[in-house]
Design brief:
By secondary structure, the chain is an all-alpha fold. It has helices at about 1-10, 10-30, 30-50, 55-65.
C-alpha cells in the first residue's frame, strides 16, 4: 500500500518534505538564513550531480564563472 502510494505521488511527497524542512528552517533561523541554507544545498546538489555525471570540474567552474 505505501509503495503504491509513493509510486503514484512521489512528486507530492518530495514536495511536502521539502516544504516541511524549509518551514522548519524558517522557524528556527529566520527567512533569509533559511533561504541562504537552501541556496547552498541546491548549489551543492547541482555540483554533486555534475560530478556524478563525470563532468570535468575545471570545465564546470569555467562554465559557471566565464567572462
Amino acid at each position: 500500500m505505501w509503495l503504491e502510494l509513493l509510486e503514484k505521488h512521489m512528486g507530492k511527497v518530495i514536495g511536502a518534505l521539502i516544504g516541511l524542512i524549509f518551514g522548519g528552517l524558517v522557524l528556527k533561523y529566520g527567512f533569509f538564513s533559511a533561504l541562504f541554507v537552501t541556496a547552498c544545498a541546491v548549489g551543492g546538489f547541482y555540483l554533486g550531480k555534475r560530478l556524478d555525471e563525470r563532468i570535468d570540474f575545471r570545465s564546470l567552474l569555467a562554465g559557471i564563472f566565464h567572462r
